[in-house]
Input
Amino acid sequence: MKKPMMINSILAVVLVSNLAGNFAHAQLQEGSGLTGSTDVVIGEAPTTLPEEAFEPYTPRNKVYYIKIHKFADKVISIVSSLNMFLMDSLIAKNNEAMSLLDFEYRENPEITVEAYDRIKHFGGWVKNKKSGDCFNTRNKVLVRENTGTIVLKEDNKCSVAHGEWLDPYSGITMTDAQAEIQIDHMVPLREAYVSGAYKWTFKERCLYGNYLGYRNHLVAASGEENNEKSAKTPEDYMPPKQGYKCEYLKDWLKIKSFWGLSLVPEEMKAIKELVAENHCDTSVFSVTKKEIEEQENFFKANAELCRIYEQNQK
Output
């Protein structure tokens, strides 16, 4: 007489467990956002993964561009110049300065693209075998920014261990390359992606991630300060060092200018307010034809840097 009751109890437990598992799995899926990865799997894991896991992202469509880039319905940059035409044919002649604070509003068509994935879209640090050394981009920046004596790792002479660096964001001095320093992209990779880099090829994005054509595109910064900055725009992050704020804003705009990246209204408004609040000299917020040509030439000369990305990492 007791067996049916026992069987019913077991079935109830199994049913509740399955419902709980399905609910937890649904909650995980619902809360996973657009990060492109999930570290924890609840419930039955699939035996195979799809070849392309496409997570949707809708790019910003109501944006501003630095005005020198807008031409008819196209936004030109050092990236577009590779496939279209020389950028300098559409901008000022000689060394006439063009303001980086002259913005133009634009509404882009609403589309859906793949959500940001750092490695998939930008790759990692590349070793340029044509440069005559074994340093990857990170170590090249460390060598370039060092103000003391470079010491390489004992077990890897292609990796910098110690030296002396000044963090421009905080003003502190750093000596341990491995423990203290991170190489920051002035305009972070995520921000570059959502403001236009989603339209580029992998080679173009990878070059952006390893770009040495503009001095402050890559910055040797303290890990603590770089983590605080993360992927924030000047609206939400400014370096604490007072004497560096204006240069930071200028570099931010120059990089967005060179690469044809957009600004959201809040970002554009915040930059204009910060320029005024910090009494920045607006005359230095400019770019010349010569500077554009230099960037254009560097970009074209290094366009194939990431063509054999995987081999370069060996």
